[in-house]
Amino acid sequence: MKWKLAFFVAAALAISAAPAFADKTGVAIEAPDTVQKGQTVVIRVTFSHKGNNFMHHTNWVYVKADAKEVARWEFSPWKLPESEVFSRDVRLTVTAPLEITAEANCNIHGSRGAVTKKIDVR
Description:
8 strands, Immunoglobulin-like, alpha+beta
């Protein structure tokens, strides 16, 4: 019984101290500015969040192309992101100008907001 109480006290302290050591989840998109029509491109999306652990972590990330979700990853206390900074690649064939949007969320602090990158076609 004492270990349960100690666990909950430690968890409460960790959560209350989290803002000093953790932040909202952020996103950066790497993609070419211009591509040839019909070209397949690799879009690298990098997510960053300090303090991924079983109680406090990035819990979802998504990538959209022209407002349509093309990739999504869900995380949980039992399936955490591999590190505080992690990337995912998405391959898309671009046939017209395209707007890529990505966002990620911390289960406690939320998101720094969506990030957008435009790809033009020549």
